[in-house]
Amino acid sequence: MIKKLAVYLREFSRDAWLAPMFILLEVGCEMIQPLIMAKMIDEGINGTAGLPFILRCGAALILLACCSLFFGVRSSRHCATATQGFGRNLRGALFRKIQTFSFNDIDRFSSASLITRLTNDVNTMQMTLGMALRMMVRTPIQLVAAFVICLSMNARLTIVLAVALPTMVAVVTVIMRKSRQLFVTFQERIDGLNDTVQENLVAIRVVKAFVRAEYEKEKFRKANDKLRDAGISVAEHMIAVFPVMMIVLQLSTIAVYWFGSGFIAEGTMLTGELSSYIGYISQVLMSVFMVSNSLRMATRAVACGNRILEVLETEPDITDGDAAELPAQKGSIEFRNVSFKYRSGTGDDVLHDVSFTVEPGQFVAIMGGTGTGKSSLVNLIPRFYDVTEGQILVDGMDVRDYPVKALRSRIGMVLQNNVLFSGTIRENLLWGKPDATEEEMIEAARDAQAEEFILRQPDGYDTFLEQGGVNVSGGQKQRLCIARAMLRHPSILILDDSTSAVDTVTEAAIRESFHKNLKDTSVIIIAQRISSVESADKIIILDDDHIVAEGTHEELLESSPIYQEIYQSQKEGVISNG
């Protein structure tokens, strides 16, 4: 895992090397100070060297402290540069990878989990890297250096460390092993909480409309409690580290004082040496304590790193085709015995043995009841999902042979959920064609019957839209999305129930603009209103995962019971309303 993630640190390898180098110098300054303090006590205070010697020792201590501070600041700066750069690169790689995912891949991970991995998991890896560059370098050096000095000062007293160190290492090892799976569970609980929050905020209007705030609060409480319980489980396992470490440290200090006082009495050790020895042994044991904290963080980082690599190493199930030459853009579509099922669904076919053609420039409508696979069908054309069986051909070539970008550049699509992004109306429209001229943009808005309400906005095309377009109505949002798609002048235009929020007069004007300004574009529209489809060149009726009827408005009125039923129900509704 470390080798795989290290590539995202390569750009900042200089800082990653300089940080521990300055730490090494910082530790060196700290290691010398107790020795000078011992000499100041033994020779200056208890000895005959006097005040000048004490002042020289004091000046040396001050100089070492200043050097230590300087080296510490430099190491912190290089460490911050390396860790922040690593986090930036890793987040960028994750985000770019997610952009290659198909809808199936996103469904498998869930958007909430992907957000957690992109934020919380990456932050954990950043903090762990910072700790590795500082604590995981500092503590082993400090531990070894302090231990060697203790051994050189009094080998017999070092027996205390020989007992204390294995005890601390054994405790840390046992706790780390038990905590590994707990950290995995903890990250999964964060996923669950994020999923609950995201779902609630996206659907907040529905929640309020149905007065379901209490239900959502209870759902959040359960997810929050699960996260709390997972955190408590981790804490319960980790909480033993600190008390055990402190007990060992205190007992070791007492033992050193006990045996050290005897050595002083017999004249084999000086008071200053014992004082500095206590300082060094404290550094040894505190180094082990800091290593345990670093290992605790590393244990969590392993869980986060594996989750990140799971995303980075996922091969998208939709990849570019290898066609060397692409056909001319005409807008023809052919479904050949297409079947489709969702991987995460029930396992049943959503579409089964579907075959039909759309000729260039045709206006084709798709109708059917809820859950008959209408949206799934049109999502297969730009390869948001791939067919389970059969073929879909665009301009005579299987869509799986196209480079994905080239295929989707031929298609303009207005999804069932009309999505607008935070930014101006102009910026949202130019999503359809970033290099469009002002005249092209205005023409698309006019054709989508959006120009009138845009010009009524305080800043016209430069009016700012909040995230999701919450400051415009549903019908206005639909017209902006249609304008965005029309601006591309695609060879294929797909509208997934995209005029349901506009009145019939406006919808008729939008259809007229298709015939007038996109006459060479093949248009596929999913609709529920007969008035939306009666002028179509072909109407396809879906029912129970397959096509049950196909023809013009007049032909279906004569031959299709389902179409007749829809027509009669809407005709009666119009009469009763009249």
Descriptive notes:
Helices cover 64% and strands 10% of the residues. The strands form three sheets. Strands 6-9-10-3-11-12 form a six-stranded mixed beta sheet, sandwiched between helices. Strands 2-1-4-5 form a four-stranded antiparallel beta sheet, covered by helices on one side. Strands 7-8 form a two-stranded antiparallel sheet. The protein contains 20 helices and twelve strands. It is α/β, with parallel strands linked by helices. The protein is elongated and about 120 Å long.
Global mean pLDDT: 83
Number of strands: 12
Radius of gyration: 35 Å
Parts with pLDDT < 50 across at least 5 consecutive residues = none
Strand content: 5-15%
What shape does the CA trace take? Answer: elongated
**Major β-sheet annotation:** 6 strands, mixed
Strand order of the largest sheet: 6-9-10-3-11-12
Q: How many H/I helices? A: 20
User: Helicity, in percent?
Assistant: 55-70%
Quaternary organisation: single chain
Distance between the amino and carboxyl termini: 69 Å
Structural class of the secondary structure composition?
alpha/beta
Summarize the helices and strands and which ones pair or pack.
Layout: H1 2-6, H2 13-45, H3 51-99, H4 103-109, H5 111-153, H6 159-202, H7 204-209, H8 213-238, H9 241-266, H10 271-312, E1 333-340, E2 351-358, E3 363-368, H11 374-380, E4 389-394, E5 397-398, H12 404-409, E6 411-414, E7 423-424, H13 425-429, H14 438-447, H15 451-456, E8 464-465, H16 474-486, E9 492-496, H17 504-517, E10 522-526, H18 530-533, E11 538-543, E12 546-551, H19 553-559, H20 561-577
Parallel strand pairs: 3-10, 3-11, 6-9, 9-10
Antiparallel strand pairs: 1-2, 1-4, 4-5, 7-8, 11-12
